[in-house]
Amino acid sequence: xxxxxxxxxMTVVELxxxxxxxxxxxxxxxxxxxxxxxxxDELQVKLLERSRNGVTPTIIGERMLxxxxxxxxxxxxxxxxxxxxxxxxxxxxxxxxxxxxxxNILPKxxxxxxxxxxxxxxxIFESTLTDVQKLIKNEEIDxxxxxLDQQDGLDxxxxxxxxxxxxxxxxxxxxxxEYVSLEDIxxxxxxxxxxxxxxxxxxxxxxTKVTPTIRYEIQxxxxxxxxxxxGIALTILPELAIPKDTAGLVSIPLYPFKKRKVGFIIKDxxxxxxxxxxxxxxxKHTFNNP
Length: 290
Known about the structure:
By secondary structure, the chain is α/β, with parallel strands linked by helices. It is built from ten helices and twelve strands. The strands form two sheets. Strands 3, 4, 5, 6, 7, 8, 9, 10, 11 and 12 form a ten-stranded mixed sheet that branches. The chain has a two-stranded antiparallel sheet with strand order 1-2. α5 links the parallel β3 and β4 (about 120-125). The radius of gyration is 23 Å and the shape is elongated. The model has no long low-confidence stretch (mean pLDDT about 90).
């Protein structure tokens, strides 16, 4: 068995296709098929099967997939540790990030990190909190950058706190208030932001026994902001998700002052690669959190 066979197998599973895997890896389809067959022959088990959903791993194939991911992770760590010993920083980091975090945090960290560590590639996936957690547990990504709330056994590294803000038109009757409570907005048409933010809001509404007048449930923050600008409804968003240029709108802190913690989630912080460790330190320093 070789690392190349592992890489080919993992790519076929990822893309659910021999053809797509061969295109991505630059091999002929027959070469990919032969490497999988050789791997199956050596292990004496069937690793893949075809279905309506494409090529998927068998039960034993799933178990072998987890082992292969662990081996490839160790390979990457060995390469990075050797490079670090020689005073170099190389490799790649796969990062999962949620939409309400990405808009204002990513621009602040990606450019400066690439400047300081040009040989470490950042591969970024934007998805829901649930998907990011799943990808980390399956070791398909190295780390998640999201809100820190009920991370189901994953390790956490806090980075910053993000105030929840009530966003409304500047002509709204509540626009002159210093802060706004959930009771204040209970009678107004409300847009519930979907994704990671609604988890916190639903908890807050339940705790205060306030029933909001939810008219819309939307995930994309730019769509939410556009609807608030039109006076369709008001909403609550994390401060990081609100652009600086919001002419015609007012954002007011939610009272009691609700803040969400933002940071990294990791499967096992004790086994992270040197490159990921440097990335975490870089982000913490960027947000003055040494």
